[in-house]
Amino acid sequence: MTATFKAQDEDSPLRAPRASEAPVRMYGVSKSYLPGSWALKDVSLEVGRGEFVFLTGPSGAGKTTLLKLLFAAERPDTGQILVLGRNIARLGGGAVPALRRRVGVVFQDFKLLTRRTVEENVGVTLDVVGTPSREARSRVFNTLRQVGLHDRRNDLPVALSGGEQQRIAVARALVGEPDVLLADEPTGNLDAELSIEIIELMMAAADRGTTVIVATHDRSLLERYGRRVLRLEGGHIAETAGDSGA
Amino acid sequence: MTAIVLRSAWQGLRSTGLMGGVAVATIATALFMLGAFALVVVNMEGLLDDFGRELQVTAYLEEGLAEDQAKELAHRVETVEGVEFVNHVGKDEALERFRAMAGGAALLEGLEGNPLPASLGIFLRPENRTPEGLAILRASLDGLPGIEELAHGQEWVDGYARLAALLRVVGYALGGVLSLATLLIVANTIRLGLYARRDEIDILELVGASRLFVRGPFLIEGFVQGALGGCVAAALLALAFGLLVPELRYGLAFFLGNAAPRFFDAGEIFRLVMGGAGLGLGGAALALVGGNS
Ligand SMILES: Nc1ncnc2c1ncn2[C@@H]1O[C@H](COP(=O)(O)OP(=O)(O)OP(=O)(O)O)[C@@H](O)[C@H]1O
Ligand SMILES: [Mg+2]
Questions:
Q1: Ligand 1 in contact with A7 (CB < 6 A)?
Q2: ipTM here
Q3: Is-above-0.90 flag for pTM?
């Protein structure tokens, strides 16, 4: 699953996949929550298969909004958004779950199921795609071990610290080996050492072919890795920096 | 996937607690009322069937009709359309029978002679035991010499059948109203449960859960609550039946005669429980449609 994705052109779902089509593409995208103010304005970008990019910018710049558009939690007002070949703006209600099963998301506010154990929280990603429970358990265990929480798998999220909860959210996004991974401040509650571990887990996913976008304020991370950086300011793409352009 | 849907339904059932209890109690109450009604109708209709089996038309013969004339009359009646057989009861036999009946002998004490008329017991074929069949018989016997009077329980049976039919219609109307009310109440309780789990539902949808995956547990929950309500109603009906029937023996005898009132059979209880399950499922579906979720 890591190395494949089926491109689906919005006009012809049966068209053969083209390797050159970037899994994440935005063209002239604008989004406004309130009339007269733009959370995103005329944003265009492409992120290729297996690419890892940072998304940065001041608070309120539109990072979360951009990510939300990519997993169809919000709809754009104008512009085209193509994720894994699907046109988000034209996605029917029934197609949204199918898209989300191939897009892993680490939410800024974690969004954990408060009445489910750590293990169940991570496993839900596999449950919704119908992974057999035996296989799901072992994959959940392995992913939890990668984020260092396998010993806490039977606890409820409330019993965990903020940083630990954040790592559950990361594990849940990673366990399904998604084609696209969107992480909104995934290291916001972690110390420098853990932050590096988590970022490197995501980079490993990118090496296996996942397209990764990580929104972060953490300047040290941007500097440390020298990856491509998309900077948002007031809803505009202000600059893109780093070693690999789209 | 089924496992987690079921598990989630189970957790929902447990966590719904009081509200779930309200849904079960509502369904149980509605089904109890409907079930009680249905019991009455079922018993009345059972009695009607018995009448149908035993329905006999009695033609009383004129006083002084000779034995061989009566025999000939019996043969003629036997040729009438729809008649299965005719049983000739002579005056003496009638007296014997009357004596044999409880109290009959005492009533005849000190009576001179035999006041009882001879009669023909006429049995119709089962398919002719209808108002139409009776009308044909009546028309055929009309004006036959030797017949004094035609008697049958039909008028009473007709009245009784009309009452049973009326009760059945009232039962349907009552059922409709109660079902609708129950559906709305159940939908509301389930909708409350839906709100309580709003966050959970949102999260499941964000990780790609399908509509069925998210809504399935609520449908199962409604189904289970409804079936539970049906079981409670059946148990309460059985209890009420067991306690009340002996108490109401005389009142029931008025409606049922000597027939013993019967409770629902297994198939009918199953339908009651499934009716509850249907109400619960319908209520849940209504909650999910109306809850813009
Ligand atoms: N649901 C909403 N309703 C109205 N306005 C919103 C909503 N969500 C975001 N906004 C506004 O859109 C703008 C961009 O918000 P967004 O959450 O995308 O910023 P961000 O870059 O993620 O900020 P942060 O770094 O603080 O998380 C902000 O001005 C915010 O107030
Ligand atoms: Mg944000």
A1: no
A2: 0.83
A3: no
